[in-house]
TrEMBL record:
This is PH domain-containing protein. The lineage of its organism: Bacteria, Bacillati, Actinomycetota, Actinomycetes, Micrococcales. It holds the Pfam family bPH_11. Residues 37-160 form the PH domain. It comes from the Bacteria. It comes from Cellulomonas bogoriensis 69B4 = DSM 16987.
Length: 176
């Protein structure tokens, strides 16, 4: 086979591979968009954060419990540098190159750690995982956040956990 034909064939195989990957990504995006509603917009006037800002890597979001099922819709699957702020009303993730993400306090289910999730495996307990619901009856989502230091990870986990701890019940009034 002449060199020109070999190069042309190799180029066609490469282009076909790129097209197949792009098609697969689009199908996954359509599938997850049908299953996962869009997260709420970031509210204006959040005020001073209770904790943060903390620089993290927004690893990705997956369906809860399945660290390999990436949610591609609504830019939830895009890895990006981010800044996390914990506010009384929820969590604000300011991500670079993709829209910011806001998780309202009442939609946070749990906070934990993991060894990793799709594409990022920093080691046992070194990835912070925020589990939340896209709506009150929506599917649960795991969002992975990688902090550069264990001190930042522990402090952020504590601040996030404080959001899901129920507020103490008011003391009963004294009867006279």
């Amino acid at each position: 086979m002449p060199l020109g034909w070999a190069v042309l064939l190799l180029g066609a195989v490469f282009a076909g591979s790129l097209w197949a990957m792009r098609s697969g990504w689009r199908r996954r995006e359509a599938r997850t968009a049908a299953a996962v509603p869009a997260p709420p917009p970031v509210p204006t006037g959040l005020g001073e954060p209770l904790h943060g800002p903390v620089d993290v890597t927004y690893v990705t979001s997956t369906t809860a419990g399945d660290r390999y099922d990436r949610v591609v819709a609504h830019d939830l699957g895009a890895t990006a540098p981010a800044t996390v702020e914990v506010h009384p009303v929820g969590v604000h993730l300011a991500r670079s190159s993709v829209p910011d993400l806001f998780v309202p306090r009442e939609q946070i289910v749990s906070v934990g750690t993991a060894a990793g999730m799709v594409g990022k495996y920093p080691g046992r307990g070194r990835l912070l995982v925020l589990t939340w619901r896209t709506a009150s009856d929506g599917p649960a989502i795991d969002t992975g956040l990688h902090t550069p230091s264990s001190h930042d990870r522990a402090a952020l986990a504590e601040a996030l956990a404080a959001l899901i701890t129920p507020a103490p019940a008011p003391l009963p009034e004294e009867q006279s």
